[in-house]
Amino acid sequence: MLLVEKADGVAVVTLNRPEAMNALSKAMRSDLFKAMTALNADEEVSVVILTGAGERAFTAGLDLKELGSDPKALGAANAAGADENPVKAIELCSKPVIGAINGVAITGGFEVAIACDVLLASENARFADTHARVGIMPGWGLSQKLSRLIGPYRAKELSLSGNFLDAATACDWGLVNRVYPAAELMPAARKLAAEMATIPVETLSFYKRLIDDGYALPFGQALALEHERSSAHNRTVTPEAVEARRLAIQARGRTQG
């Protein structure tokens, strides 16, 4: 139901229910929580890639068959615990999480996608918020995050229609970083993850948290937060460490040039 592969500082987590469009059943949500908790604590992992099995779906969100057969199952839509709420499970990971969106990301699946730190999409990817059409309201952050990502007018267009957004338009709107042919998606995600993994994981985690915590604040407070945290951090950096990093950056520039 959930596959985890680790190599060279990068972990790939695959939602593996392709026959059910990788729907987020209770068991899968529990497995995702366990996997993200373990990877967060794994000293050999610096970056995580999250994707779905097959080319049809990243994830279709909560398992509607499960919701229709269990009167208590709908509580998952407002679950606060990371063992039930996959967005919280992703957010508890202090390391960068790259979403490799291989197919449709629908409703709760849309929420899971935008919980990632970077989004790379296949040409097959499409996004839809069908909460209103199903008759429930989002409880994992979509109603607030989406408007901040693409603006309130575009967010309302998507959420109040339930229409699909194709990958190319999602990229134009700033929802995803880049779009690739299906066969190139995972190689591109692995390449970006490998580049990130050359930076010490402590630095990656610190910077990720600085961006996230600042983004949640008014701009003036965010600048004050940056000054406070960067001042404390930079006092611990030695000239020798700066010189070593400088030489490494120069070497990397020569190889990339």
Helix and strand arrangement:
Blueprint: E1 2-7, E2 10-15, H1 26-41, E3 47-52, E4 57-59, H2 64-69, H3 86-91, E5 97-101, E6 104-106, H4 108-113, E7 118-122, E8 126-128, H5 131-134, H6 142-150, H7 152-161, E9 165-166, H8 167-172, E10 178-180, H9 182-196, H10 201-215, H11 219-234, H12 239-256
Highlighted features:
4-stranded mixed sheet; 2 domains; 2-enoyl-CoA Hydratase, Chain A, domain 1; 257 residues; 10 strands
Structural overview:
With 257 residues, the chain is of the alpha/beta class. The protein folds into 2 domains: 2-196, 2-enoyl-CoA Hydratase, Chain A, domain 1 (Alpha-Beta Complex), CATH 3.90.226.10; 217-256, no CATH class. 49% of the residues lie in helices and 16% in strands. It contains 12 helices and 10 strands. It has helices at residues 26-41, 64-69, 86-91, 108-113, 131-134, 142-150, 152-161, 167-172, 182-196, 201-215, 219-234, 239-256, and strands at residues 2-7, 10-15, 47-52, 57-59, 97-101, 104-106, 118-122, 126-128, 165-166, 178-180. Strands 1-2-3-5-7-10 form a 6-stranded mixed beta sheet, sandwiched between helices. A hairpin with a 2-residue loop joins strand 1 and strand 2. Helix 6 crosses helix 7 and helix 10 (201-215) packs antiparallel against helix 11. The chain is globular. The termini are far apart. The mean pLDDT is 93.
Share of helical residues: 40-55%
* CATH class identity of the largest domain: Alpha Beta
Oligomeric nature of the chains: single chain
Strand order of the largest sheet: 1-2-3-5-7-10
Following the backbone from N to C, one meets helices and strands in this order, namely EEHEEHHEEHEEHHHEHEHHHH
**Terminal residue distance:** 42 Å
> Helix tally?
12
Total count of strands: 10
> Judging by the overall fold, what is the CATH architecture of the largest domain?
Alpha-Beta Complex
**Estimated radius of gyration:** 19 Å
Query: pLDDT under 50 segments (min length 5)?
Result: none
Q: What fraction of the residues are assigned to beta strands by DSSP? A: 15-25%
